[in-house]
Design goal:
By secondary structure, this protein is of the alpha/beta class. It has one domain: TIM Barrel (Alpha-Beta Barrel). Strands 1, 2, 3, 4, 5, 6, 7, 8, 9 and 10 form a ten-stranded mixed beta sheet that branches. The longest helix has 16 residues. The N terminus is likely disordered.
């Protein structure tokens, strides 16, 4: 089988980087080639309750990323590229192996740059019996056109909405257009699946759940992102306020303003915004000391 899912992938235009790389011959701006690099797949119990449930979420951690976040907790795979390469049948096999472990869903972590191969692998896995809901767990830095091509393949969208202002997006992730692109992407996700819906046991079966990570000093303006979500999608939008930031990767040497965890006051300020805007559905991560459980044990390969 070809390394790519369609001729269009020969000049990659899948994400806002618009690098035009021939990924069958060389890596794109994200670092990925034509094969799908995966580091780890496992039952993950640390996602939001409707995703993890009681048996865990079948997470597949893809290597490489189109962002360059200076604080990335997964930088070993996202920026250093740890992982092993798989073709489309190989990826379908991973999906089926993950599903066979008894998890509630298939959770595709940082999938955007492999969207063509993922779509083909999902179709193949479904021919072989895959019947779990599919979760698209992304940074939010995506093109609406790419997401439109995933319509019908994804049941639950779980994007970040990481920045509300271009200056912070440029400084900390190398993507000044992140706010515009992420908002366009989230609107497309919502168009496809609507608000989050749960089954009788409280598990997500379809819909949108937006994650917002609090950074020190609220440099990413979570308050503005929350207001945008409320104004565009309504207070019934499911949100997840994440407090698990800790300094890692390049922070200590170059970004002193991020070289600490968030404070209780910063956490409480965002919760006050959530309440004032009238959000009705979602999850609040309590402030706690960093734990190794926040970062999977990626394989050095």
């Amino acid at each position: 089988m070809s390394l790519t899912a369609s001729p269009a992938s020969s000049l990659c235009r899948l994400c806002p980087r618009d690098c035009g790389a021939d990924r069958a011959a060389a890596a794109g701006a994200c670092g990925a080639g034509g094969l799908v690099r995966v580091n780890l797949w496992q039952a993950h119990h640390g996602e939001e309750p409707p995703i993890s449930g009681t048996r865990g979420s079948g997470t597949i951690f893809f290597s490489h990323c189109n962002l360059r976040c200076v604080y990335c907790q997964n930088h070993r795979i996202s920026q250093e590229g740890w992982g092993r390469d798989h073709d489309i049948p190989g990826l379908a096999g991973i999906m089926l192996e993950a599903a066979a472990s008894g998890v509630h869903n298939l959770n595709l972590v940082t999938p955007t740059h492999y969207s063509l191969q993922i779509r083909a692998a999902l179709a193949l896995a479904r021919e072989r019996g895959l019947a779990l809901p599919v979760v698209w767990n992304s940074s939010g830095y995506e093109l609406a056109e790419t997401l439109r091509a995933m319509a019908g393949s994804v049941d639950v969208y779980l994007p970040d909405l990481r920045y509300a202002e271009s200056g912070a997006a440029r400084r900390y992730s190398g993507a000044a257009d992140y706010p515009e692109r992420a908002r366009e992407a989230i609107l497309e996700m919502f168009r496809q699946v609507g608000h989050l819906r749960l089954d009788d046991s409280g598990l997500a079966i379809r819909g949108l759940l937006v994650r917002l990570l609090i950074l020190p000093g609220n440099v990413n303006r979570v308050d503005r992102s929350l207001r945008w979500l409320r104004d565009r999608l309504g207070p019934e939008t499911a949100i997840s306020i994440m407090a698990q930031y800790y300094p890692t990767h390049r922070v200590a040497g170059f970004f002193p303003e991020l070289n600490r965890t968030i404070t209780q006051a910063e956490h409480d300020d965002i919760l006050d915004v959530v309440e004032s805007l009238g959000f009705e559905n979602g999850f609040i991560q309590e402030l706690a000391p960093p734990t190794p459980e926040w970062t999977p044990a990626f394989r050095e390969c």
